[in-house]
Amino acid sequence: MLIYSVYDECVKFYNVKDDSQCKMSTAEVMIVSIASAQFFYGNFRRARLILKYGRLMKHVLSESQLNRRWHAIKEELWYAIFFLLAEINKILRPPTKYFAIDSFPLPACEKKPEVIDASYIKEGSF
To answer: Taking the model in full, what pTM does it have?
Structure first.
């Protein structure tokens, strides 16, 4: 609910007007994109179906309509919303000294040529 409120207020601040015939507001379209990224590994088809058949949204657009509406949203609006969400996250979560690094080098991944000692090779063993 908090995220929808932030989206809706930001859309109003940027004076984005939805057509009177729209079945989904711009904020709802943005919620579908965030839900697909966060919970469905970017699979917007699955997110759309869950939101539709789970009755989490009153009306959900078809895939092509949703895709067109996503691309019609200006970049400035996306940047503003992500900035606001980052600021809200800083306020709601206390700072920590710990952080995660997304790379984990393993020595087993290095390719090393196998060295075979000639004294261990017996004739006919291959």
So the answer is: 0.65
Tokens for 10, please give them: 């930001």
3-state helix, strand, coil in the chain (%, to 5): 55, 0, 45
> 16 near 31, Cβ under 8 Å?
no
pLDDT (tens digit, 9 = 90+) per residue, 49-76? 888 888 888 888 888 998 999 898 989 8
Question: Please, are residues 9 and 32 in contact by the beta-carbon 8 Å criterion?
Answer: no
| 8: Cβ contacts below 8 Å, ≥ 6 apart | 25, 27
Residues 35/47, Cβ–Cβ less than 8 Å = yes
Cβ pair 66, 44 in contact under 8 A: yes
Q: Which two tokens stand for residue 68?
A: 């067109």
d(CA 40, CA 76): 25
Q: Between helices 26-39 and 44-53, what is the axis angle to 10°?
A: 110
